[in-house]
Each structure stands twice: as C-alpha cells, then as structure tokens.
Amino acid sequence: MFRKAAVTTVSNGSYLQGQANGRLPSMDSGQPAQEGKVVLKKKVTLLRGISIIIGTIIGAGIFISPKGILKNTGSVGMSLTLWTVCGILSLFGALCYAELGTCIKKSGGHYTYILEAFGPLPAFVRVWVELLIIRPAATAVISLAFGRYILEPFFMQCEIPELAIKLITAVGITLVMVLNSTSVSWSARIQIFLTFCKLVAILIIIVPGVIQLIKGETQHFKNAFAGNDASIMGLPLAFYSGMYAYSGWFYLNFVTEEVENPEKNIPLAICISMIIVTVGYVLTNVAYFTTISAGELLLSKAVAVTFAERLMGNFSLAVPVFVALSCFGSMNGGIFAVSRMFFVASREGHLPEILSMIHVRKHTPLPAVIVLHPLTMIMLFTGDLYSLLNFLSFARWLFIGLVVAGLIYLRYKRPDMPRPFKVPLFIPALFSFTCLFMVALSLYSDPVSTGIGFAITLTGVPAYYLFIVWDKKPKWFRKLVDRVTVTLQILLEVIPSEEDQKS
Q1: Given this model, what pLDDT does residue 25 score?
Q2: Position 386 confidence tier, pLDDT thresholds 50, 70, 90
Q3: 458-486: string of b/e by CB count within 10 Å (b at 16+)?
Q4: Cα-flanking dihedrals φ and ψ of residue 494, to 5°?
Q5: pLDDT digits over 320-363, tens only?
Q6: What's 315-331 look like in SS3?
C-alpha cells in the first residue's frame, strides 16, 4: 500500500509527450523550476502568504459562536484577557514555525518537522490521524457552516432543511477541490479576494462597535471580571476554544517549497497576519459587548447576526453572505495547505506513491488534493463530526507542542544548521510547555473524550509497522498496488518527482 522502494511507473510513456525529464528538482540543489519542468512552482508571494494565513484562521467561529471562551472563563474581562493571551501565544507558536520554516526548507508543516526532529514513527502517526480523521472532519465542519449560511438568505422565515445544507456543502467541497486541482495561481487569487472579504466583514462589526464606545455604551464592561468564577476544569476548554479560533497560523509552513524567498517572506507573513488577526479578534469581541450582554451572547445562535440586527437593520442580511465567504476561504486555504503535507509524506514513503505525483500540465499535486474528497464526503453524510473533533483536539495540540519542543531539541542536536530567522529560546519553551500542560490538564478535566482521542491516535502505531516496516508483503499484493498506481497515473495524468524516478 505504501511505497518503500522502486515501483513501476509510466513516467516515460508517450502520453507524457517526452517529458521524462520533467521532474521535481532536489530540495537542496538550488535548481530553479524551469518552464518545461513538471514541478510545484514558487507562486506564493508575501501577499499570498498573508492571505493563506489570515484566510484560513478567520472562519465562522468569530462571527457565529465566539462563546466557548466566555462560557469557560465566566466573565467578560477574563474572556477578553484570554482572547488576547491566546493571540499572543499563537504568535509565539507562529514565530517558532517561522524559524523551522526558514531552516528546514521543505513543505509539510508538522509532519516534516516531527520527522526531522524525532524520526519516522511519530511523523507517520501525525499524518495518519490527519488524513483519516482530523482533516476530513475539520473540512466537513467548516463546510457545513458554509452550506448553512449560503442558504440563510433564502430561508429567512423557516428552518433550513438538513439535506439541503449537506447537498450545498458537498457542492462547495467539490468546488474547492476542483479549484485547487486546476491552478495554484487561481486558488491563491481567490484566497486573496476572500481574505479581503473577511477583513471587510470584521470591520463592519468593529467600526459600529467603536462608535458605540464613543457614545458611552460601556455598561457591559462594568465589573468586567465579576461573574461566575473560572474553574481549573474549564481552563483547558477555554484554551482549546481560543487556540482553535486562532488555528491556521501554521498553514504557510505546509507550502514552504512554493514560497518565494522563504527566508524573508515566511517570518514577515506570519508576523503581519498574527498581528492583524489578534487585534481584529479582540476588537470584534469588544464590539460585541458594546451591544450584547454576556448572557445574551451565550444564548445567541449567531452572535454577528444578533449584533447586526440591533445596529444595522436590513443590512444584517449581508452577514450570512460574509460568513459563507469566510468559511469558503478557510476551506480553500486548508485544502491548499494540507494537501502538501500528504504530498511530502508520500514523497518520504509514508503514504501511497500516487499522492506525491504532479499533474503534467497544471503543475498541481492533483492526487494529494482529491484524496480528501471521498473521505470528507463520508464524514459529511455519516460521521459524528463534532465528537470526532472533540476526541482529537488534544492530538492536534499535542503534536504542535511536540513540534516546538523539537525546535529546542534541534538547537542542541544540530547547532550548525543555518537559521536565517531565530527566536529567543524562552518562546518555544513557553509555547511547548503551555500546549503540553493543557493537553495533560484535559486528561484530568475530560478523561473520556481525551482517552478516546488518544486511543484513535495510537492506531497509527500498528499501522506504521504493518504498512511501512513490514516489507514481506505478498507478491500479489505488491503487483496489485503497482497496477493501481500505474492506472491512476494514466487516468490523472500525473508523474512522480525526480527523487521517485531515481529510486
């Protein structure tokens, strides 16, 4: 099932029109991606990098239900404090990833950094859980929000049928997959446009909020820290809510090989994006509290809609449209980035070889993009999405904490590694400690969900030994895998990278 050594390919066949030399250049060769070569070209500029990060971070949560923090902290003051703290902590994590992205110039994000620091087993477990559960479930969840809010203006007086939501969601998922399979440039351009729409949507909330503050509407900020006392049981859940809202700052590292001048653009894009998002999130929550009380916010099904209805009248009808566009941007950015993790994992031999191949004309990692489509559709129509995400939320932060701990480890293991961008050591130490502490605390506060998630994650260990380590697979099985790979190459018109062809 998974590539270990050379396999039969059709990369020299006539249907490729003589492009046997159209291969990916070595990561360390410095060889430019020439026009005639079938490569993932460097098309991610600074602006596109910023749009990937901001466009993926800002989803539906800040507009619909920013109440996870408020519910688990117990007061307006504590919730705003935690929004700020989570933003700063996310910036710290993003700066650590900026260092990793400039010294390890390979795409793949979490997977690549764990592989470099700790070896193949934990890296495989990370990509195993991401491919089979986390990414399909996360994509289905954000896509369902897209489906619901794109239909909202047509069902103002009645409940939206669940089947209609799922059908339009399926169309949206398919559209994103087609877009990312067709053109990197168009995917990036649309991401820039959608990021602009998200920032406009946030400004539509912030500006009236600032006007309310100028008018003296501060009654909901009086005794801001009064209310229900925050318990140690609720802090991990509040942390997860806040960090989940900011999650996405690591996606640019998934496409490092496609970033122009990564030593400069990765740190710049990360810093600019995180400052914009953190300031935007905090001011958006402040704006909400100028008009909505803490109790009303907890009861609201869509906070931005409630806010807009009170201050903007009929203009509130535009809010669902902006939310749908925001969700679509998160879908697009997530698929664009995560497909590169699967591409790199396949290149390393941890996923089927077909996933590391590139379309001969469109120069996109077509198989790595579309592999998520059937898995996401299965999740959409049959899975208990929210339970799966609750089970595995700890796994995401466990591995992110592990990645940043790996940065510290690499400082001592490989001190001579070139580091164009270097963060003070206290930043990765604080970030990794906080992630791992909160993961440990979640075992105490919600042992059942965390335990189930831990068990699901551990299924990657026997899978690693079965698919990767065990090399005495039956001959018929190997022939079948080779035949399927060749057939898919012909159908999808893709070829392997240079390293694959050399092996």
Answers
A1: 39
A2: low
A3: eebeebbeebbeeeeeeeeeeeebeeebb
A4: -125, 155
A5: 888 888 889 989 988 988 999 999 999 899 999 999 998 888 88
A6: HHHHHHHHHHHHHHHHH
Q: Average pLDDT, stretch 129-135?
A: 87
Burial group, residue 313, by CB count within 10 angstroms (0-12, 13-18, 19+): exposed
Taking 50 as the threshold, does the pLDDT of residue 247 lie above it? Answer: yes
Q: What is the per-residue pLDDT across 145-187, written as a single tens digit (0 to 9) for each?
A: 888 888 888 887 778 888 898 999 999 999 999 999 988 888 8
Residue 492 C-alpha from the chain's centroid: 26
Under 8 Å between Cβ of 183 and 361: no
Tokens 């896509």 sit at which residue?
143
Look at residue 16 and tell me whether its pLDDT is greater than 60. Answer: no
Beta strands 494-495 and 358-359, pairing class: antiparallel
What sign has the CA pseudo-torsion 269, 270, 273, 275?
negative
Token readout for 263 is: 């030593």
Contact residues for 165 (Cβ-Cβ < 8 A; gap 6+): 144, 147, 148, 151
Measured between its terminal Cα atoms, the distance across the chain in Å is: 17
Residue count of the chain: 503
Cβ neighbors of 253 (< 8 A, separation 6 or more) are 97, 100, 101, 107, 108, 109, 113, 266
Please give the angle made by the CA atoms of 78, 404 and 368, to the nearest 5 degrees.
105
Instruction: Quote the tokens at residue 84.
Output: 């700020």
Asked whether 66 and 245 are in contact (CB, 8 A), the reply is: yes
The span from the CA of 269 to the CA of 468, in Å, is 36
Least-confidence region, from 174-188, 272-286, 312-326: 312-326
